[in-house]
Design a protein that fits this description.
Helices cover about 30% and strands about 15% of the residues. It is α+β, with helices and mostly antiparallel strands. Among the domains are: about 260 residues, Beta Barrel (Catalase HpII,  Chain A, domain 1); about 80 residues, Hemocyanin, N-terminal domain, CATH 1.20.1370.20; about 150 residues, 3-Layer(aba) Sandwich (Rossmann fold), CATH 3.40.50.880. The strands form 4 sheets. Strands 2, 3, 4, 5, 6, 7, 8, 9, 10 and 11 form a 10-stranded antiparallel sheet that branches. A hairpin with a 5-residue loop joins strand 7 and strand 8. Helix 3 runs antiparallel to helix 4 and helix 4 crosses helix 12. Its EC number is 1.11.1.6. It comes from Amycolatopsis acididurans. InterPro entries: Catalase, Catalase_AS, Catalase_clade2, Catalase_clade2_helical, Catalase_core, Catalase_haem_BS, Catalase_immune_responsive, Catalase_large_C. Decomposes hydrogen peroxide into water and oxygen; serves to protect cells from the toxic effects of hydrogen peroxide.
Length: about 700
């Protein structure tokens, strides 16, 4: 009887283990009592190499995907150059690319985080913004994102976070989406994620283009000068074209119409000579001010508000060459946060410390061995000499008898350098070996509140809608309720608006109210950059379109830097309208495209064409959808009939005088009588990106 009980107990124990129940252990079966913080020398000290649990956990995570990247699998890249404006940083750093004023070659890779290589570009996600600088002092990699903070504070939790956001393991659903139970279960139990989650639910997660996207180094790094003195630094990329986003409805439709929307946009603009450009800025903090903030500089879930430390412009980057081969260059490029040059060093940020281990470990398996730095896209322009030999992918034929140091047989070569070397910043480190987070990392809500307070009402509406969409996909009602409770710590109004849309009871207001602080720099709409360059406009035409007026529209907008395409029910040459004019040819067939692929739409004159387009459901929907998405809409002459059929309710011109109303530009004029003011006015509203004051809730699309 005892033997039967023992056997049954073993079976139950085995079933329990198989189901993932029981105590957390290492792969060797050693029980673990803490998996949220790495082992460090003191609460704010560096992570220790002897932390076998963290190394095992991260190593296994690094090797989970073959051959695509575990995260940031889907990306696009380009070559270009960076050039510092002057030598004003020379007192802070010996990094020559920041002070020399020379053009430094770069390769930049943009990416999504959660999806596979086959996922769409326009998913709601963080975007990677990684830059490799090929400098005379060696390669420097600034491995950043389009958001300045991250979900977690300590890298030991990175496998947990990514496992939560990836498709759920039982059914591999959903792809490239955070709108599912495991992600929000993680978020609702990890309040440190909330600041980043606010960014993820904002328009920042839906960039219009990689060229219209900010980039951030995320971590606080350290600049080191020739005297060995340090200055804390955060890196910022700001796009010359401004920071602009899509709408969530557009993103979902673009994923079907053109899943390569962002990579195609980058490629086409560089290919046509319209080179994207960013300005590099830095926030500098003297070491004496390290503890003068109400947050910890080593906490990657926090920003330094620009009102406290302004961003100082230091140089510009231009991308001007597409890769020759996607796999050889974009896919094989290997970034690493620990690829630094003299004058740039690390801090004890526990997330950064883990990344410094993880990236190299990941590349070893993804690129087949330790010689991936010899792949052309990864190869430094600086001279490379060392005693590392053999291994998978070895391309260099080493000569001589020695591969060690010190040696006499090889004449002591390669020799130890005595100048322009990398010297680690000298910092005293002491403390107990502990798994314990500093109390200065414990504020999880105030910067999430700062972000919410800084948003315009339009941006707040989008954030609330995003939360409702994401949490509406969560099946477990307890996870929904728990998340709303966490949002209540950020702002009661936010929690109430989200709760109302997902069937969750609104929690009582917090005893400690919203702190009321804001940072205008966090809003995309507070200081917009209104540029026309590379904006795409669809002009709807058909047989009978006024060729003179349509061509004037194309010519005037093209002169201003706009990309104009003529869309018709059938591709090819069109029958001219009664006014005559030169031949007009459609660039694309209307039903192969969609309004979500363009920044604006216009309908020129031509009675026959207007009748055709008004009777074409796809053409009417094209205009109505663009209008609903608050995009600029224009029409003149009989083209106004198409706008009316599409449900455009803004004031439409009743005479030849140009009328502008909430981003709708109209005139009854046709052909040569169309005033030049029409083109200038339409260009102005295109540059403004959207007509956010347009009320389109009741417009069908």
């Amino acid at each position: 009887m005892a033997e039967q009980k023992d056997a049954k107990h073993e079976q139950l124990e085995a079933a329990r283990v198989e189901a993932g129940e029981g105590y957390l252990t290492t792969q060797q079966g050693v029980r673990v009592d803490h998996t949220d913080d790495s082992l460090s020398a003191g609460q704010r000290g560096p992570t220790l190499l002897e932390d076998f649990h963290a190394r095992e956990k991260i190593t296994h995570f690094d090797h989970e995907r073959i051959p695509e990247r575990v995260v940031h699998a889907r990306g696009a890249g380009a070559y270009g150059y960076f050039q510092a404006y002057d030598d004003s940083l020379a007192d802070h750093t010996t990094a020559e690319f920041l002070t020399s004023g020379e053009q430094i070659p770069v390769f930049v890779r943009f990416s999504t985080v959660a999806g596979s290589r086959g996922s769409a570009d326009t998913v709601r996600d963080v975007r990677g913004f990684a830059t490799k600088f090929y400098t005379r002092q060696g390669n420097y990699d600034l491995v950043g994102n389009n958001m300045p903070v991250f979900f977690i504070q300590d890298g030991i939790k990175f496998p947990d976070f990514v496992h939560a956001v990836k498709p759920e393991p039982d059914n591999e659903i959903p792809q490239a989406q955070s709108a599912h139970d495991t992600f929000w279960d993680f978020v609702s139990l990890q309040p440190e994620t909330l600041h980043m989650v606010l960014w993820l639910m904002s328009d920042r997660a839906l960039p219009r283009s990689y060229r219209m996207m900010q980039g951030f180094g995320v971590h606080t790094f350290r600049l080191v000068n020739a005297r060995g003195e340090g200055t804390f630094v955060k890196f910022h990329w700001k796009p010359l074209l401004g920071t602009h986003s899509l709408l969530w409805d557009e993103c979902q439709k673009i994923a079907g119409k053109d899943p390569d929307f962002n990579r195609r946009d980058l490629w086409d603009c560089i290919d046509s000579g319209q080179f994207p450009e960013w300005e590099l800025g830095v926030q500098l903090v003297p070491e004496s001010d390290e503890h003068s903030f109400d947050f910890d500089l080593l906490d990657a879930t926090k920003i330094i508000p620009e009102e406290q430390v302004p961003v100082r412009p230091v140089g510009r980057m231009v991308l001007n060459r597409n890769p020759e081969n996607f796999f050889a260059e974009t896919e094989q490029i290997a970034f690493h946060t620990a690829n630094v040059v003299p004058g740039i060093d690390f801090t004890n940020d526990p997330l950064l410390q883990a990344r410094n281990f993880s990236y190299l470990d990941t590349q070893l398996i993804r690129l087949g061995g330790p010689n991936f730095a010899q792949i052309p896209v990864n190869r430094p322009i600086a001279e490379v000499q060392h005693n590392q030999r053999d291994g998978y992918g070895q391309q260099k034929i080493h000569k001589g008898r020695t591969s060690y140091f010190k040696n006499s047989i090889g004449g002591g070569c390669p020799a130890i350098a005595d100048s322009d070397v990398f010297s680690h910043y000298t910092e005293r480190v002491d403390g107990r070996k502990i798994r314990e987070r500093s109390e200065s990392f414990r504020d999880f809500y105030s910067q999430a509140t700062l972000f919410w307070n800084s948003m315009s009402e339009v941006e707040r509406e989008h954030i609330v809608s995003a939360f409702r969409f994401e949490l509406g996909k969560v099946v477990d009602k307890e996870i929904r309720a728990r998340t709303v409770t966490e949002l209540n710590h950020v702002d009661h109004e936010l929690a109430a608006r989200v709760a109302e849309g997902i069937g969750v009871r609104t929690p009582a207001a917090e005893a400690t109210p919203n702190h009321g602080r804001s940072s205008p720099a966090l809003s995309q709409l507070n200081a917009p950059v209104n540029k026309l360059d590379t904006r795409k406009v669809a002009v709807l035409v058909a047989d009978g379109t006024d060729a003179v007026g349509a061509q004037r529209l194309v010519d005037e907008l093209t002169k201003k830097g706009v990309i104009v395409e003529l869309l018709a029910p059938a591709e090819g040459e069109l029958r001219p309208g009664a006014s005559g004019g030169g031949p007009l040819s459609a660039d694309r067939q209307l039903n192969t495209m969609a309004s979500v692929l363009y920044d604006a739409v216009a309908v020129p004159c031509g009675p026959d064409a207007a009748r055709t387009l008004s009777g074409d459901g796809y053409a009417v929907h094209f205009v109505a959808e663009a209008y609903k998405h608050a995009k600029p809409v224009a029409g003149f002459g009989s083209g106004l009939d198409v706008l009316r059929k599409a449900g455009v309710t803004e004031r439409i011109a009743e005479g030849e005088q140009v009328t502008r109303d909430h981003g709708v530009v109209t005139s009854t004029a046709a052909e040569q009588s169309l005033p030049g003011e029409f083109f200038d006015t339409f260009a102005d509203v295109i540059a403004e990106h959207r007509a956010w004051d347009r009320k389109t809730d009741s417009v069908p699309a």
